[in-house]
Specification:
There is one protein chain. Helix content is about 30%, strand content about 20%. It is an alpha+beta fold. It has four domains: about 100 residues, Phosphorylase Kinase, domain 1; about 200 residues, Transferase(Phosphotransferase), domain 1, CATH 1.10.510; about 100 residues, 2-Layer Sandwich (Phosphorylase Kinase, domain 1); about 130 residues, Transferase(Phosphotransferase), domain 1 (Orthogonal Bundle). The strands form eleven sheets. A six-stranded mixed beta sheet has the order 1-5-6-4-3-2, sandwiched between helices. Strands 17-21-22-20-19-18 form a six-stranded mixed beta sheet, sandwiched between helices. Helix 7 packs antiparallel against helix 9.
């Protein structure tokens, strides 16, 4: 087989979003231990488990002979995509008779096996999360990329699940890049039986609505836990579903998996079924955009989450307001309920306590002191309503998204410069709206810390906090917009937008970042940053540097007393003794791997002079 020549390679390696590593065949042989562990086989070839030199696990996709064009096409598409819910492409090998792709290893296999072979319970919330994450990935490749991508083979077998059961799209072997909004035509049949858009089989028109149809089938599988190829009354399950749905949402209840089809969940499950029905309609133009599907699924997941919390211990207790009588309560007490329990808020109220004889008494719970999850009244920021921020960001549309991380997502918004009221895109001033995920405890701490610290700090080299919103379960922050993005992008990405920084700008950025740190370490602020890195240094239109993301910031200690900050492990405070805790337990620390000071990782102690751990960070930045 001929190698992909240098002239050919330039056609498909230029406009990539991120660089990938080129491996030799010898590298692949070593990392796979001579292809010892096969993870799967397909028409393209085989997938093997591998280990990189740093110990991280990878998956190696080895193509069979005579598929150079397939390899090149998949590489062209996959390297363009950078999204948390898409399997990350790490590198490739293009030697003769050795065409291979190296991707991240996803530990829990694929969704098809989880649904149909593992025979394990899958709660509704997990199914909804998988649906939302897949929809987010599709919305991203359809609408949020410079060149949109049509996946072409959405099915549970191509949806992988990581160790925390987060979903990641994989297998871009038959995907297409669509440079315009025009329809693609092909005579080649693509896709998988049961998930292929029937309209495509008829007219050969390939649009993003092809993926929407396939996603609708996946939604049906998630709710019914039946394969798409299942035959019901001599017709396939999709046809049986759409026929039943035409008779009303209640007509499809018999198809839902009994594990999730409880009375409490029924409205949510029926809502998902309605979306699935719209996705698989035979009127192509009436199928929804994935951006809209994402928002609707998020709403349903929030509704299911609230119902689950409300019903978790319902019927166990009966509460009354002060000096009012409560109706009698009766319920079967679960074995895992402790002998006594109290609940308190920041006001004195009655608490029901149980002794081992299940008798009850009344007692008073004093007000609790202010916790670190409250916003300081002195924060000099505007309080927004959730409705105002929805209007500003166009209902958090994906094409308004600026970025995302473990905390949630950041959206571009537009506000009136004087009143801060939402305005139409292209008018007023641009702001960055940070929306926190609902299920992130550490994210909630980050959000509160940011309000408390940034609300009281003002410096030209700190990103300005404009306001916040705390409404029901929604928590958001509004910052000034930094149009040049992060320093990380300018240093490590190349393209038409992110240009290499000349030496004078690099020195300017380093000086201004140091000024920002100097202010934080001074007597006025006494704040330890803890997460100083290139991705947290943002640049305005004039390349002025400003520090951002104070989620890990902490009040500085007074005087010369050393103190320790507890390490956060998935929302749990580590209270063990430093130096005695198991290394694997303290391995998850506050800060970013590669940037945290070694003495902080080893001891958890922050120096009394505040600045030494962050001096380590700025040294790495200058390096």
């Amino acid at each position: 087989m001929e190698l992909i020549q240098e002239a050919d390679r330039s056609k498909w390696m230029v406009h990539s979003n991120h660089s990938i590593k080129c491996f030799t065949k010898g590298d692949i042989d070593k990392m796979t231990n001579s292809y010892r562990t096969c993870l799967g086989r397909g028409a393209f070839g085989e997938v093997y488990k591998g280990v990189l030199e740093d110990g991280s696990m990878v998956a190696v996709k080895r193509f069979i002979h005579n598929v150079k064009e397939n390899f090149a096409k998949e590489l062209i598409v996959h390297r363009e995509i950078n999204h948390k819910n898409v399997v990350r492409l790490i590198g490739c090998c293009e030697e003769e008779n050795a065409l291979m792709l190296v991707t991240e290893y996803v530990a829990n296999g694929n969704l098809s096996d989880a649904l149909h072979h593992d025979n394990l319970p899958i709660p509704l919330d997990i199914r909804l999360r998988v649906a939302v994450e897949c929809a987010e990935a599709l919305a991203y490749i359809h609408s949020h990329m410079y060149t949109r991508v049509i996946h072409g083979d959405i099915k549970p077998g191509n949806i992988l699940l990581d160790s925390n059961f987060h979903a990641k799209l994989s297998d871009f072997g038959i995907s297409r890049l669509a440079n315009t909004d025009k329809t693609l035509h092909t005579e080649n049949v693509i896709g998988s039986i049961g998930y292929m858009d029937p309209l495509f089989a008829l007219d050969g028109r390939l649009t993003v609505k092809y993926d929407v149809y396939s996603f609708g089938v996946v939604l049906l599988e998630l709710m019914a836990r039946k394969k798409a190829t299942t035959v019901v009354d001599n017709v396939n399950i999709v046809y049986a579903f759409t026929s039943a749905l035409a008779r009303g949402s209640g007509g499809v209840r018999w198809m839902f998996d009994a594990e999730i089809a409880s009375k409490d969940n029924m409205k949510v499950v029926e809502g998902v079924a309605k979306i699935a029905g719209e996705c698989v309609t035979m009127e192509r133009e009436k199928r929804p955009e994935m951006i809209d599907v994402v928002e609707r699924l998020r709403v349903l997941r929030q509704k299911a989450s609230r119902q689950d919390q409300a019903s978790q211990h319902s019927g166990l207790f009966s509460w009354a307001r002060r000096n009012k009588t409560a109706p009698p309560a009766s319920a079967n007490i679960p074995a895992n309920i402790l002998p006594s329990g109290t609940s308190s808020k920041n006001s004195s109220k009655n608490a029901i306590t149980f002794d081992t004889k299940i008798s009850c008494s009344s007692s008073s719970v004093p007000p609790t002191p202010r916790t670190e999850t409250e916003i300081l009244e002195s924060s000099n920021v505007r309080k927004f309503t959730f409705s105002e921020l929805k209007g500003s960001t166009r209902n958090f549309r994906l094409d308004s998204m600026l970025g995302e991380g473990g905390f949630g997502s950041v959206y571009k918004g537009w506000m009136d410069e004087r009143t801060l009221a939402p305005v139409k895109p292209g008018t007023g001033m641009i702001v960055a709206v940070k929306r926190l995920k609902l299920d992130s405890f550490q994210g909630h701490r980050e959000w509160v810390d940011a309000v408390n610290y940034l609300g009281q700090l003002s410096h030209p080299n700190l990103v300005k906090l404009i306001g916040y919103c705390w409404e029901d379960e929604e928590r958001l922050l509004v910052f000034e917009y930094m149009p040049r993005g992060s320093l990380e992008h300018h240093l490590f990405r190349r393209g038409s937008y992110f240009q290499p920084l000349p030496w004078n700008l690099r020195m300017k950025v380093a000086l201004e970042a140091a000024r920002g740190l100097g202010f934080l370490h001074g007597d006025q602020a006494k704040v330890i940053y803890l997460d100083f890195k290139t991705s947290n240094i943002l640049l305005d239109s004039e390349y002025n540097a400003k520090l951002s993301d104070f989620g890990l910031a902490k009040d500085g200690p007074s005087g010369y007393t050393s103190y320790t900050i507890p390490t956060m492990l998935m929302g749990t405070t580590f209270t063990g003794t430093n130096g005695y805790a198991a290394p694997e337990y303290i391995a998850t620390f506050m800060g970013t791997h590669g940037y945290a000071a070694p003495e902080y990782i080893a001891t958890g102690n922050l120096c009394s002079m505040i600045c030494q751990p962050v001096i380590h960070h700025i040294g790495l930045l200058l390096f």
